[in-house]
Amino acid sequence: MTKTKPLISVIIPTYNEAKTIGHTLQHLHSWGDPLEVIVVDGGSTDGTTQLAGSAKLIYAPKGRATQMNAGARQAKGDILLFLHSDTCLPSDTPEQLQQALKDNRVVGGAFKVKIDYPGLFFYLASQGSNLRARLTGIYFGDQAIFARREIFHQIGGFPDIPLMEDWQFSRRLNQAGKTVLLPGPVLTSARRWLIHGKWKTAWLMHKIKLLYLLGVSPEELRRLYTDKR
After folding, report:
1. What is the pTM of this model?
2. Across 164-189, average pLDDT
3. SS3 of the chain: helix, strand, coil, percent, to 5
4. Most buried of 20, 67, 77, 107 (most Cβ within 10 A)?
C-alpha cells in the first residue's frame, strides 16, 4: 500500500511535569495515526512517568537537549516535532506539516505561538515572539520546533548545552535549507510568567538573549535561569 501520510514523531522532554503531561498527551492521542508520541523523562519524582499512558516512555539524563536527542534516536517518524509538556498543538498540525513539507526545500521550522492567558501583555509577548521568529528564523522550544528526521541527524541534532540549544539548532537548521514558521498557533502556558512576575520574566528572557549575543556561554547563562514552574 502506498504511504499517503508521513509519520510524525512528537518528542516531549519531561522533568516533574505531572501537572501538565496528562492534558498534553490527551490532546495528542485524539489524533490517532500518523502520530508517534515519545515521552523522554529526565528523572521526575512527582509521578510524571506514571501518567505517560500509551506514549512510548524512555529515560535520559536531565537536560532538554540530551532528552530530545535521546527521543530522536528512537523515533520512527519522517518528521520530528519537539513539544514542551505545557504546550498544545493545533488540531490541524498534521495537515500544516504535510502542506509545508511538500516543498522539498523546507527542512523544518516551528509554529506561531499564543500564550494561554488573557490580557494585552501576553498578546504582545506572543506577537513579539512570532515577529522575531519570522524575521530571524530563530525558533524557541515553546514554538514546537520540527525537522525532517534525516536533516535532524545530518546536522547533529540539538547541541548538548544547558541553555540556548534551540537557538543554536535553529541556526544549524537554517544552514541546512529553508525553514518556515507555520500559522499554528501552538498554545503555551503562561505559568512561568505568572510565578516569577510578568515584567521580571520578560526582562530575564531578553537579558539572557542579549548576553548570549555578546558571547556569554550557555553554561554561565544557565546560572541566571530558573526552572521553577
Report:
1. 0.91
2. 96
3. 40, 20, 35
4. 67
Listing from the earlier edge strand, what are the strands of the sheet with 79-82?
A: 56-59, 35-41, 8-14, 79-82, 146-148, 106-115, 178-188, 87-88
Q: In this structure, what C-alpha cell is assigned to residue 16? A: 516533574
Rounded to an integer, what distance in angstroms lies between the CA atom of residue 42 and that of residue 13? 7
Long-range contacts of 2-5, Cβ-Cβ distance < 8 Å, separation of 24 or more: 5/33, 5/34, 5/94, 5/98
CA angle 165, 209, 149 (to 5 degrees): 25
How far is it, in rounded angstroms, from Cα 25 to Cα 89? 11
Orientation of helix 165-176 relative to helix 64-74, angle to 10°: 50
Question: E strands, 89-200, where?
Answer: 106-115, 146-148, 178-188
73-132, pLDDT tens digit by residue?
999 999 999 999 999 999 899 999 999 999 999 999 999 999 999 999 999 999 999 999
